[in-house]
Give the backbone structure.
Amino acid sequence: MTRLSVCACVCVCQQTSSTWSSSSSRRRGADPRGRENDLDRASGSQPHIIFILVDDQGFRDVGYHGSEIKTPTLDRLAAEGVKLENYYVQPLCSPSRSQLMTGRYQIHTGLQHSIIRATQPNCLPLENVTLPQKLKAAGYTTHMVGKWHLGFYKRGCMPTQRGFDTFFGSLLGSGDYYSHYKCEGAGMCGYDLHEGEEAAWEQDRGLYSTLMFTQKAVSILENHDPRRPLFLYMAYQAVHSPLQVPARYLERYKSIPNIYRRKYAAMVSCLDEAVHNLTLALKRYGYYDNTVLVYSSDNGGQPLVGGSNWPLRGSKATYWEGGIRAVGFVHSPLLVNKRTKCRALIHITDWFPTLVGLGEGTLDEDMNLDGYDVWEAISEGRRCPRQDILHNIDPMYVKAKNGSWKAGYGLWNTAIRAALRVGHWKLLTGNPGYSDWVPPQTFSNQMLTKRWHNERVQWDRGKSVWLFNITADPYERTDLTQRHPHIVKKMLMRLAQYNRTAVPVRYPAKDLRSNPQYNGGVWGPWYKEEKLEDLESERDNGLLSNHLAKRRWQKTKKGKVRRTAD
């Protein structure tokens, strides 16, 4: 891979205390097989892994980032562990989840564009090995509680078909926190709470989902043998819209005049309490001393519904820092250096090789992972193997009217939405999305569109390329494209190199068969592949006209060829 003549990422972990001696082992290899285990575990067993992924929590929306929202549990867990202060995810739900599950960039799974929608015959491609599959092969019991949002159009896409022993939660990207219903347009409404691969009617007591998911997780911990390694993926629905929360949490934020911010703050507090109850259960049932807990948001906050990324620029669904720089930390008694801030460049794809390595699993070289094993960088403050991040290349999003090959020096069409980080440098092309800074005082009782104190960006009009030194300018206020055209050219070349490795985009049209009314009122798998021999049999037995059989046969054959090509 071509290297840029720019400063590389250096992992700098600011240590305030250390209770364990540094391990001599290294975790930089692509394959953890045969490595000495650097976790000093009295039991000698693989660590339990708890991964908490929350939804739409803004960068500022945690106490230790200066928020007015009270998060005592998150603050304490982060303070006692390692705060990840240079940590990146994707700007939307499905992209972040797909990269967590596979350790691969979107351009390598075909999920470059938008999210996986409930009505699309689409899901995380089945040829991709998932994190739970790898941990399960290493001897882990794997459980998922919460939001899937990686597609479900056929049975093979369901969580229990992708490596999880059990699943309790929702398949869609959002829904009512109490009734668990979701509409995807007029006449497209259905129930979305599942136990395994079936609707969880009997388990549904109308409980608020944050509380319900936590109760389920505690039950899993209570009934599992802590002597056996456990992987628990807690994918909370909170704090994604709709803004719903039990009244008792709202009372804490009467002083916030903006109703959206008030409800959002209450939802974050409820989430914080849920994490508190989860950690209490880890201690109560004998897991805590041998557990690695990772906490991460899936993308930036959405100011339109109360989230805040201040002082970062932009919001959810954008490639500005406010959309992709996330709240994240690791809490574990097994950390070598505790109570530290790690400023290593870390990306959500890194959890795949890192956690498989911790779990003593195997990584085959032909997996072509984009993630790195970053455990030493987090736990010991060693140099980080990651030097760049491809935030994304979305060839379907070409809304930059002034983008062109000419603006990209003939190296890249700057109409294409793309973002790349290399060392200190970040390059954006196309239309990165909503680009304002939204300060805390924004959340008055006025609507967002009527705010007088929002910082409007006028100089961006007509642009299709931006360059920032994120280390020196984390708030993306000073565009350096004119000052460093040589850096721009080298990064455009790097984008072109990445793009040559991309697979075709998977973003199929809406399938009307997805309507829950055809599935007992439940969102769930609807796609059934017809076998060619079955159609020929129907035709031969007179059940189909020759014309209809020919059309269906051709359609099935075409689909079979296309799926084989994919």
Observations:
- The longest helix spans residues 259-284.
